[in-house]
Every structure is written in structure tokens, then in C-alpha cells.
UniProtKB/TrEMBL annotation, chain A:
Keywords: Membrane, Transmembrane, Transmembrane helix. InterPro entries: Di-haem_cyt_TM, Mopterin_OxRdtase_euk, OxRdtase_Mopterin-bd_dom, OxRdtase_Mopterin-bd_sf, TAT_signal_bac_arc. This is Molybdopterin-binding protein. PANTHER family: BLL0505 PROTEIN, PROTEIN-METHIONINE-SULFOXIDE REDUCTASE. One of its GO terms (molecular function) is oxidoreductase activity. GO terms for cellular component: membrane. One of its GO terms (biological process) is respiratory electron transport chain. The chain crosses the membrane at residues 21-42, 62-83, 104-129, 141-161, 268-291. Pfam families: Oxidored_molyb. Residues 240-260 are annotated as: Disordered. Residues 324-458 form the Oxidoreductase molybdopterin-binding domain.
């Protein structure tokens, strides 16, 4: 078994699978995960705030930015995590696999980290496609796994900290021959397998490749076509019957080895960089207007839909087409025993305010728009609500997790929070919340309640 | 690589030990919190579903994706004996980038075959765009290879 594992480790060893690159990719991935975690928590608590929480209403596009970053960083995690797993793949065949309780827990935490990370970014991506092929609740599991990932990441960093610290410093970027000493260079250029503890490297058969793998590598390392400069393979078996152009036991010229390893490392890093840039640039146009012209693959596009604003839930889906267009519709506003109601005509007759605010969805897409309507703080003043009034908002929707929501006093008191009646200069489309909807700065789209029915001041 | 005691530059053994202890302690707390949240918000079948997805993701990566990448690497390594290393790296880079985009886009055009909420969700013809993307990527990769070979050729002549 040990021989098999060592053989597999050698089989998958290449210059790009080394500790320095594992650290370089690892810290980018950790940064992306931390950004996702921070922005995800912000989005979560905006939707489910703790009693003492207050949120900034300025800048008004704060949530548009944080959630755009959340989704974009999540997408960038795909190339990063695949690159990270690629650099450490030989560790899968580490032998002996378990050396004690500590190593068992370390490997278990890595398995949890890898599994949770892959599931987290996958369900996050598919959620933006509104595609749910799993037997569990998205929001709850996405939230729970975020703690699992950060926890197992912290454990992983704790376990690997000596290696991370050793290979952390940049020194000379990716030309280690410039600043590292000979021993360090050898270690950095070595595939992961060669950095195994010395005792393990003395295991009989550790340097040998035989059987199917051996035949495969003999084919790979067979003499090249005439006139082509041969390159010695790292893993060629010393006892291989084939005669490579450069014998396996003859050391490869140091300069050639360095150049080859350097080309691999640079090629790998450039590929990772291009991969990250491609997935980000070709999708982030759904969140950031600057990248809109490059939006080839995002599930959402700015500027489409009724009144040039995309939508999530239609009036039909919310079952409000009749109630929202009923002639006797009125917005009820109450504060304790004091209750007022306003028809749409009465709301239109009140002083109107126009603001530019984005609709920013939890799925990452966003759209800036111009809204006109009644300032909420002026409306609630009519029922003698104080400066610190918070609201319970009810929609005409028949059902749904956001039919009834709450709005903190910071939003109620903000000058730009409106009961909106028009969008981009036109009467609100029914899919955008006709006859009246809420629009406030820095809030997730799901809390910008459409098809308003009732506002209650909370004591 | 685990099991080796390396001392990090600029970090004393005591600081290293303390930092590791804190990180592992925080990590265990995170795991416990995640487990508590999961158990409190999901029933048993859903939790088993999460476990199955996690296991499936590991198997998909370790037993399918990685061996396929390994085999591609083997072919590339063989080809690498007849083709310039840099050209090979450029081609590999192009293929990897295309595969990454495909990984994101294939579920998208599948999702579009299912009932969607409205016309503003998944508005593109993703299959056609994916085809054009591969075409564009192939042209771009070939162009970069040609430029590299010309530059490298001039350098060789200059020497």
C-alpha cells in the first residue's frame, strides 16, 4: 500500500505542485473566502438583524457593492480552489496516511474544508441561476457552511502554519533563484513529494515507478524526435529499460532544470490569473456597470426588463395581479391606535421626491434607477411617529418569506427612503410593485417591498 | 509535508505555537457553530443531503476531475518533448481557461431549459456564447503562440 501511495505521489508530481505555489494560491483563496464570509455576514444580518444592530444608509450603493463583491469573489473562488487543490494533489497519497490523532484530525479538517468549500461555491453559483437541484434549504445551508469553511480554514492554517510562514515571503517573486539559498531553491523547485520527511524517502521503492505507471512514463519519456532538445522527466524509473536521451541517473543541467521549473511555475500562475480574470470579467457586468460591456455569461444583465430594470418575482408569481390593480387599493399606515389610509391618488398629491437608488439583489445583480414618491419619514410623521420609529411592512403578496419585513429606524429616517410611485419617469410597472413600493438606500432587493399594503410603526 | 517542524522566518517558536493554538481553537469554534446552525435550521434528511453533496464533491474532484487532469498532463508531457515548453504552456492555459468558463456556463444553459421565473433571468443564449467563446479562445491562443514563436525566433537569430 505504501509503495502504491508513493508511486501515485510520484506519478502526479510536477514542478507546479510545490509548497511555495500552494502558499501563494492558498493565501489568495483564503482572502477570497474571507471577503465572501464578511460580505455574506453583512447580507445575512441586513436580512435578519440582531436587536441592537444599525446599518449605514450611506453610501446608498453600499449593498450593491458588498453583494456584487460577494458574488464576484465567490465566482473567482472556482479557479482559485481548483488551482489550490491542483498544487497539493500529491498530498492525497501521503504515506502513511495517518500518523496519529493529530494527523487524523488534520486530514479530516481538510476533507471537511474541501467538501464544504466546493459545495458552498457551487450552490452559491447555482442560486444566482435560480437553479436548486439539492434536497436542502439554500439560505440556511449556505449560512451554516460559511462557518464550517472558516473554521476548517483556520484549523488548516494552524496545522500548516510553519510551512506557510516559511514560504510566505515574496523576496523575489517567482524567480527564487535570485534570493533563496541553494538548499531553499532545491526545496522550492522540488515537487511536493520530494519535500517528504527524509525517513519516508528511504522507504524501499519510494523512488521507483513500476507497473502500469512505469510503462506510461516510459512512453512519455521515450526518445523524442530527432533534432528536438530532450527534457529529462522527474519521475523516470532508474531501472527503466527504455533509454532516455538523457539517462535518468545523470543529473539534468542545473540551468535547464531551473528554466523548466520556472517556465512551469510562471505558466501555472499566468493560467490561474487568466482564469480568474476570465470568470470575473465575463460575469461581473451584472454587478458593476463598468464591466457591463463584457458581460457574456452572467445570469443577469443590466438594463433589461420592464422599465429597463430586471426583476425577480413577478406580480403573477406573487399572486397580486388582482389586489394590486383593485380600484379600492389603499396603503394603511398605523401607529398604535392611530390609523390612516392613503389611496394612490392621495399619495401622488403629497410632496414628491426623486432619488437615484439601486435595486441590489442578494443574487449579486443590481440596477441603478430613478424613483419618485413620498418621503417615508414625512409619511410616518402623519401618525405622530418619532425620529426613532421602526416599521413593520406588509406586502399584498399571498405568501413568501419576505411578505412581512421590518425596517430599522435608520432607513425610516433617511431622506432618500421613499414610498415609490414611479420608476424612471413612468408609473410603476406592476412587476416592479404597482401601486406603491418601498425603496431605501443600502438594502437588499428582497427588503425593497413591492405591492405595499400596510405600514405599522413599531414602538 | 505535514509532520515536519519548520520554523517560520521572523516568528519565534513560542509565537508560532500560540498562533497555531489560537487558529485551531477558533477553527473548532467555527466548526461547532456551523454544525449547530445546520442542525437547528435543517431536518435530518436535509443534513444527510448536505453530507452527501460534500462527499460527492470530494469524490468528483479526487476521483474524476483530478485523474482527468492528470491524464491531460501526461499527454501534454509527451507532447512537450516535441513542442516548445512555452507554446505548450500557452495552449494548456487556453484549454484550462475554456474549461473553467465551461464549468460555470454549462449549468446555466441547463437551468435555462427548466421553467424560469421571468425573461430577465438567464436572458442569453448561453450554448451559442460558449461555442463562440471556444472559437475566440482558440484564435487568441493561436495568436499568442504565433507572437511568442516569432519573438523567440528573432531572439535566436540575434544570438
Amino acid at each position: 500500500m505504501r509503495r502504491l501511495l508513493l508511486t501515485l505521489q510520484h506519478a502526479v508530481a510536477v514542478p507546479t505542485r510545490n509548497p511555495r505555489l500552494a502558499v501563494v494560491i492558498g493565501r489568495l483563496l483564503a482572502l477570497a473566502f474571507l471577503v465572501c464570509f464578511g460580505t455574506g455576514l453583512y447580507s445575512h444580518f441586513l436580512q435578519e438583524p440582531l436587536p441592537w444592530m444599525h446599518f449605514p444608509t450611506f453610501p446608498s450603493n453600499l449593498y450593491q457593492f458588498t453583494q456584487g463583491i460577494h458574488i464576484t469573489a465567490g465566482i473567482a473562488c472556482f479557479p482559485l480552489i481548483l488551482a489550490k487543490l491542483y498544487t497539493v494533489f500529491p498530498n492525497l497519497f501521503e504515506t502513511p496516511p495517518i500518523t496519529g490523532i493529530g494527523s487524523l484530525l488534520a486530514r479530516a479538517s481538510i476533507a471537511v474544508f474541501v467538501g464544504a468549500s466546493l459545495v458552498e461555491i457551487t450552490i452559491g453559483l447555482l442560486n444566482t441561476y435560480q437553479f436548486y437541484p439539492w434536497p436542502f434549504g439554500f439560505r440556511e445551508v449556505h449560512f451554516a457552511l460559511s462557518f464550517v469553511i472558516i473554521g476548517s480554514l483556520a484549523i488548516h492554517i494552524g496545522v500548516k502554519l510553519p510551512i506557510i510562514a516559511k514560504y510566505w515571503r515574496k523576496r523575489d517573486g517567482y524567480g527564487p533563484e535570485l534570493a533563496f539559498d541553494e538548499e531553499e531553491r532545491a526545496e522550492i523547485n522540488a515537487p511536493l513529494v520530494d519535500a517528504l520527511p527524509a525517513p519516508l524517502q528511504k522507504v524501499p521503492g519510494a523512488r521507483q515507478v513500476s507497473g502500469l505507471t512505469g510503462r506510461l512514463f516510459r512512453w512519455i519519456d521515450a526518445a523524442p524526435a530527432e533534432g528536438v532538445v530532450p527534457l529529462r522527466a522527474v519521475d523516470v524509473a532508474p531501472d527503466a529499460p527504455a533509454t532516455p536521451a538523457v539517462p535518468a541517473d545523470e543529473p539534468e543541467p542545473l540551468g535547464q532544470s531551473r528554466t523548466r521549473a520556472s517556465t512551469s511555475r510562471r505558466g501555472f500562475l499566468v493560467t490561474v490569473g487568466v482564469g480568474v480574470a476570465a470568470v470575473v470579467v465575463l460575469t461581473a457586468g451584472q454587478s458593476f456597470a463598468l464591466l457591463r460591456p463584457f458581460n457574456l455569461f452572467a445570469p443577469r444583465v443590466k438594463g433589461i426588463g420592464p422599465q429597463s430594470v430586471p426583476i425577480n418575482r413577478t406580480a403573477t408569481a406573487a399572486q397580486v395581479t388582482e389586489t394590486a390593480t383593485a380600484p379600492d387599493w389603499a396603503l394603511t399606515l398605523s401607529n398604535g391606535s392611530r390609523t390612516l389610509s392613503f389611496s394612490r391618488a392621495e399619495l401622488l398629491a403629497m410632496p414628491q421626491t426623486t432619488v437615484d437608488l439601486p435595486i441590489a439583489c442578494v443574487e449579486g445583480w443590481s440596477q441603478m434607477a430613478t424613483w419618485t414618491g413620498v418621503r417615508l419619514k414625512e409619511l410616518v410623521r402623519q401618525v405622530d411617529a418619532g425620529q426613532s420609529a421602526a416599521l413593520r411592512i406588509t406586502s399584498l403578496e399571498k405568501e413568501g418569506g419576505y411578505r412581512v419585513t421590518q425596517m430599522g429606524s435608520e432607513y425610516v429616517a433617511d431622506n432618500t427612503t421613499l414610498v415609490a410611485l414611479t420608476l424612471n419617469g413612468e408609473t410603476l410597472d406592476i412587476d416592479h410593485g404597482y401601486p406603491a413600493r418601498m425603496i431605501a438606500p443600502g438594502r437588499p432587493g428582497v427588503l425593497q417591498t413591492k405591492w405595499l399594503s400596510k405600514l405599522e410603526v413599531l414602538s | 509535508m505535514s509532520g515536519r517542524e519548520l520554523s517560520g522566518p521572523g516568528m519565534s517558536a513560542r509565537t508560532m505555537r500560540l498562533t497555531r493554538t489560537i487558529l485551531i481553537g477558533v477553527g473548532v469554534l467555527g466548526l461547532v457553530l456551523g454544525a449547530v446552525v445546520l442542525v437547528s435550521k435543517q431536518d435530518l434528511p436535509a443534513i444527510l443531503g448536505v453530507a452527501a453533496w460534500m462527499l460527492g464533491a470530494i469524490i468528483l474532484h479526487d476521483a474524476i476531475l483530478s485523474p482527468v487532469v492528470f491524464l491531460i498532463g501526461v499527454v501534454a508531457r509527451h507532447a512537450g518533448r516535441r513542442v516548445s515548453k512555452v507554446v505548450l504552456a500557452i495552449i494548456q492555459g487556453g484549454i484550462v481557461t475554456g474549461c473553467l468558463l465551461m464549468l460555470l456556463v454549462v449549468p446555466e444553459f441547463y437551468a435555462k431549459t427548466l421553467p424560469i421565473a421571468n425573461d430577465t433571468v438567464l436572458p442569453f443564449d448561453y450554448a451559442a456564447r460558449l461555442g463562440f467563446m471556444w472559437l475566440g479562445l482558440a484564435v487568441l491562443t493561436a495568436g499568442v503562440c504565433v507572437v511568442y514563436l516569432r519573438v523567440a525566433g528573432r531572439r535566436n537569430v540575434a544570438r
